[in-house]
Design goal:
By secondary structure, the chain is an alpha/beta fold. The chain is built from 4 helices and 5 strands, in the order αβββαβαβα. The longest helix has 21 residues. The C terminus is likely disordered.
Length: about 150
């Protein structure tokens, strides 16, 4: 009589990390795609002005809040290194445009000093963000509160 021995493969005592890496890469892709769409949520009361809306292509948003803090595309920036940061961004994109979004209660000299920093970085295309009327200003405050 021939006895047949059943062969059972040995159990692997290692963790298969492939599904975990797949999940991490999908999450990373989602965050990379969504993060530019969210935008900064810094509460700023814009002054009103009549004018046309600009297209927002290859722009950097500089925000100056009521406390005098400067934010570069939603991240708090050190004013000492702001010129260097802007120069580096200009090297990457020579057609860079900067929009300064300052709270209407900020002193005029703070906005002018921010404009000087942008000009020293070699960026000549600078705009000032304004709200076209009181209804849009109220809408902007509502959007910022949700974030």
């Amino acid at each position: 009589m021939n006895k047949r021995v059943k062969f059972t493969p040995p159990l692997l005592d290692q963790i298969n990390i492939t599904p975990m890496l797949d999940t991490i890469l999908v999450l990373l892709a989602v965050f990379v795609i969504i993060s530019p769409l969210v935008g900064p949520g810094i509460p700023v009361k814009l002054p009103t002005a009549a004018g046309e809306k600009l297209s927002v292509t290859a722009t950097i948003l500089l925000t100056l809040n009521k406390q005098g803090e400067v934010f570069l595309s939603g991240r708090q920036a050190n004013p000492i290194f702001l010129s260097v940061d802007l120069q580096n961004l200009k090297k990457v994109n020579p057609d860079l445009k900067v929009i300064i979004q300052a709270d209407k209660e900020v002193r005029y000299e703070a906005v002018v000093s921010l404009l000087d920093i942008v000009r020293q970085a070699g960026i000549s295309s600078v705009g000032l963000a304004t709200a076209s009327n009181a209804a849009e200003d109220a809408e902007l405050k509502t959007v910022n509160k949700k974030r």
